[in-house]
Specification:
alpha+beta, 933 residues, 30 helices
């Protein structure tokens, strides 16, 4: 039936399913949309749940009209043929390498470029890929097309839309969710946290009996455990004028922990029982995980059988004959899911910290799977507010809510719902009251509509505001005691739309030059706006940095006194502004930088006391021409800076970037002589290495890259040429894919061009030695994996072509060292700065390791080093080598007497030690800058 009245719309963009609910404006009756979707090739059905899944079929796999929907629109992700919803899930169960799932979890994963086409994760090159952003947008676009086909005179983009997100989403994930909505043609949406939405649905359903239903409630815990995330929220209940008044008082941190993890744990058990000699590929493990999900649901049902058989089909022509089966018993589910994810935790322990998080299918799952331990930690974080709500004294005991609302698909398993209620009851010493959730699958979408109804005065409301406090890290930064000095810019509980100005704090901001702000958030504190506080780094979440370039109306102005203003927007995101103090009305909006890869936390802006003197030394060499400077003084600049600042290995990131900025401002001075250029290139590369780590490094890289097309000035000087390539190798971590591909062209020319090509060398192409080119090529981590495979094959050919000898002479040893170091970088399973989807293919890594096994690792020590990095374990089967080859590498490392840390990184998922990271990078990293992967 075509709609003539506007509607209030709620959308639950879930990890597993997407749902749309609505109500007519002025009505309090909420309904869900039956979403048209493909249920079989060529067959369209409707259902309230749209599985958040995409399937990219093979050419010719489906008939031309098999994917026809009641509407026609191009795919947001740019894939020509794609299935979305139930058909995608069913096709993906048999061909998981073509299935895009859990896009929402990827959208909140800062360790990859969330705007790059990386899904399906680990799929072959012939499978079209989309970004997590585009995948999320495609589900919203499907809803928009379904709604608009049914209601053409009231299109979805003209309705009041509330889109739900996990309460734990940080500002980066929230901004990307809004961007996904915009890409889907929904530019005007409001965000609401999912646990709140679930409670809004319950309140709306019980709106006529709330005073009775909540008469004895003081503190409600909303536990939302879905397919991909776990969210906790605390809501205080007070009686005012005989009616319950609700206020949210706490939310939890982000946890990639949910039903997907439980299914995966059962899949690992089933895999061990299949009788396979080799570990399953990532695609076949995904297929087995889907089978285990169905088995889990059967075994958790009230009338569960004693056991269920899961079958893993073969592939290709052996689809049936090569199938394998394993049995999962109810006792297995009790042990793994109930006791593993919901242990009784009688001692109320918090989450256990592991050396490295769990990585599977590329996602960094929570290292501790016990949800009840995470819950104890959450309640401890909010203990003060919880005690006040419950009206109990501070007796060091864990305050436990008296009321529980469960939400999320996980709690469809009655045994899991009963277990969590039982754990909380045991902690309380009294039975906890469980609010009945009538339909968890659609509660969040319905609750989003109820939220809009509450804003219109047609349903009960929850007082909320900002779920976190936000802090600006001050310039003195991280102190010797490890604390962070910060000023609160937006306190927890601040109402949406209310701007708070730090009237008592003034900041002088430079004009025409980039400025940056380091922000963190915290969930358990009571600071007021403008308060100076000391924060424990373990208790805060670092936000994407804010960086901007301020422009003044008066070109002569060097700096502007400003005050900071912050607000929680009506959309549910943090907004920051700089406001001029002079009353001119000038305002600058500060935008978060949403980089593709995770930023290494930079040291705070603590300036070295002698930095001004160091900049004077730089200015003397590269500044105005009228200064009389001898060649000897130019050559000794580095030594002079170290005399002023101390050894350069101890220069921290803020100091290094101040020096780089000074060098960049005087870049023209490098052309005065070969000595000037050599020294400038050396210092610039050192001060900007590794090309990231500071919020303004993107801007700095852009300024530096603008020098590349012109090449070096004194190209006939061998030291200038060497320093030119050293500079680009050192900053390669900050270069874009396009820039790295440009460097790859020069790498290939310098190493492989024939004499005729060399005679036609472009004037700006700087010659490079073999050593320079190997180090440069190995540092280009953002080039496509296929290029890395080609480069690695070439390097292995050169390595194995070195004449064998009982003991390599000095020349051979140096050649081994150069090529094996480069191969270690090219074949590394865990990149130093690139995204995980850009590593060399595992089959190529296997080829290289097989060749390296032929070398004597005792006499050729770099061979073991290279093998340890090429075989390094990540936990991600799309990147890891086979287990048989891993065992061979471990045995050879042991026989060669290699360092224990090399074997450890092959055997288990661990972080690199400082020595290995320095050797892999080729230089010591700036103090305080740690490579996170």
């Amino acid at each position: 039936m075509t709609r003539t009245r506007p509607a209030l719309v709620g959308i639950d963009l879930g990890t597993t399913n997407t749902v749309l609910a609505y109500a007519d404006v002025g009505s309090d009756q909420v309904a869900t949309l039956d979403i048209p979707q493909l249920v079989a090739p060529g067959e369209v059905g409707t259902a309230p749940l749209l599985p958040s899944s995409r399937y990219h079929p093979l050419d010719g796999e489906l008939a031309a009209d098999a994917l026809q929907l009641p509407w026609q629109q191009p795919d947001v992700g740019g894939v020509e043929r794609v299935a979305i919803g139930r058909l995608a899930r069913s096709l993906g169960a048999a061909s998981p390498g073509r299935l895009v799932a859990s896009a929402k979890s990827w959208l909140s994963h800062p360790g990859v470029d969330r705007t790059a086409p990386i899904l399906p994760w680990g799929a072959p090159d012939d499978v079209p890929k989309v970004s997590p952003l585009a995948a999320s947008a495609s589900y919203l676009a499907h809803l928009r097309a379904a709604w608009n086909t049914r209601h053409p005179t009231q299109p979805l983009e003209r309705q009041q839309i509330v889109l739900t997100i996990p309460a734990s989403f940080d500002e980066g994930a929230r901004a990307l969710t809004l961007e996904a909505a915009r890409l889907a043609g929904l530019p005007d949406v409001r965000l609401l946290e999912e646990p709140q939405a679930a409670l809004y649905d319950w309140l709306q359903r019980h709106r006529t009996t709330l005073a009775t239903d909540l008469a004895d409630a003081k503190l409600v815990l909303v536990a939302d455990v879905g397919g991909g995330t776990t969210d906790f929220t605390l809501v205080k209940v007070e009686l005012k004028d005989g009616e319950p008044a609700l206020a949210r008082i706490g939310v939890g941190n982000h946890l990639i922990l949910g039903g997907d993890n439980m299914d995966l744990a059962l899949a690992h058990l089933a895999e061990s029982r299949l009788g396979e000699s080799q570990r399953l590929s990532a695609g076949r493990l995904a297929q087995l995980t889907e089978r285990c999900r169905a088995a889990k649901e059967q075994l958790l049902a009230p009338d569960a059988p004693d056991e269920v058989t899961v079958t893993l089909l073969g592939s290709g022509s052996r689809l049936i004959g090569a199938s394998r089966s394993a049995t999962i018993a109810k006792a297995d589910v009790d042990r793994i899911v109930l006791d593993g994810f919901f242990p009784f935790n009688d001692t109320q322990e918090g989450p256990q910290r592991a050396r490295a998080g769990i990585v599977e299918f590329g996602l960094p799952y929570a290292s501790d799977p016990a949800i009840t331990r995470h819950l104890a930690g959450f309640l401890r974080q909010h203990a003060q507010a919880a005690r006040e709500a419950l009206g109990i004294p501070d007796d060091d005991r864990l305050p436990v809510p008296d009321t529980l609302l469960l939400n999320g698909g996980v709690f469809r398993g009655e045994a899991l719902a009963q277990r969590l209620a039982g754990v909380l009851s045991a902690w309380r010493g009294d039975a906890i009251r469980v609010l009945h959730n009538a339909d968890p699958d659609v509660a969040v979408a319905r609750g989003a509509v109820a939220y809009s109804l509450a804003r219109a005065g047609l349903a009960p409301a929850i007082e909320s505001g900002s779920a976190r406090s936000y802090y600006l890290i001050l310039e003195e930064g991280q102190r010797k005691d490890g604390k962070l000095s910060a000023v609160c810019v937006l306190p927890r509980g601040a109402r949406a739309g209310a701007e708070i100005t730090l009237a008592e704090r003034s900041f002088a901001l430079r004009v025409g030059r980039p400025v940056r702000f380091h922000l963190v958030s915290a969930i358990a504190d009571t600071a007021a706006a403008g308060d100076l506080v000391d924060l424990d780094p373990a208790d805060v979440v670092r936000l994407p940095a804010i960086a901007t370039v301020l422009r003044a109306q008066d070109a002569k102005t060097a700096s502007i006194p400003v005050q900071l203003a912050a607000a929680l927007s009506e959309l549910g995101t943090l907004e920051m502004f700089c406001v001029a103090e002079d009353g001119s009305g000038q305002r600058w909006r500060l935008e978060f930088q949403l980089r593709g890869e995770e930023e290494a936390p930079a040291s705070a802006d603590s300036a070295h006391p002698q930095v001004d003197e160091a900049i004077k030394r730089i200015d003397r060499i590269f500044g105005a021409r009228n200064q009389q400077v001898e060649v000897r003084e130019v050559r000794q600049l580095r030594g002079a800076l170290e005399h002023v600042l101390g050894g350069r290995e101890r220069w921290e990131t803020p100091l290094l970037r101040r020096l780089f900025d000074a060098l960049m401002e005087r870049a023209k001075g490098r052309r005065r002589s070969a000595e000037h250029e050599r020294v400038w290139l050396n210092l610039a590369g050192w001060c900007l290495r590794p090309g990231f780590g500071d919020p303004l490094d993107d801007w700095r890289i852009q300024q530096l890259w603008a020098l590349f097309p012109a090449g070096a000035q004194y190209v006939k000087d061998s030291q200038v040429r060497a320093e030119w390539w050293t500079l680009w190798r050192r900053v390669a971590g900050g270069l874009s894919t396009e820039a790295q591909l440009r460097l790859l062209d020069d790498f290939a020319f310098n190493l492989q061009a024939d004499p005729n090509d060399r005679a036609r060398r472009p004037a700006t192409l700087v010659d490079g030695s073999e050593d320079d080119m190997l180090r440069l090529g190995a540092s280009l981590e953002r080039i496509p994996a296929a290029y890395k495979a080609e480069i690695g094959d070439w390097m292995v050919g050169r390595i194995m072509g070195i004449p064998a000898a009982p003991k390599p002479d000095a020349k051979a040893a140096a050649t081994y060292a150069r090529y094996l170091w480069a191969l270690a970088r090219v074949g590394a399973r865990t990149p130093l700065h690139g995204s995980a989807h850009e590593v060399a293919p595992p089959d190529a890594a296997g080829r290289w390791l097989t060749e390296l096994m032929l070398l004597d690792w005792k006499r050729i020590e770099p061979a073991g080093f290279a093998a340890a990095h090429i075989a390094r374990k990540t936990g991600d089967r799309t990147r890891d080598i086979g287990e048989d080859l891993r065992a061979q590498v471990l045995q050879k490392l042991a026989s060669a007497g290699a360092p224990a840390s090399w074997s450890a990184q092959v055997r288990e998922v661990v972080e690199l030690d400082q020595e290995s990271s320095t050797r892999m990078f080729g230089d010591a990293l700036p103090p305080g800058l740690k490579l996170l992967r």
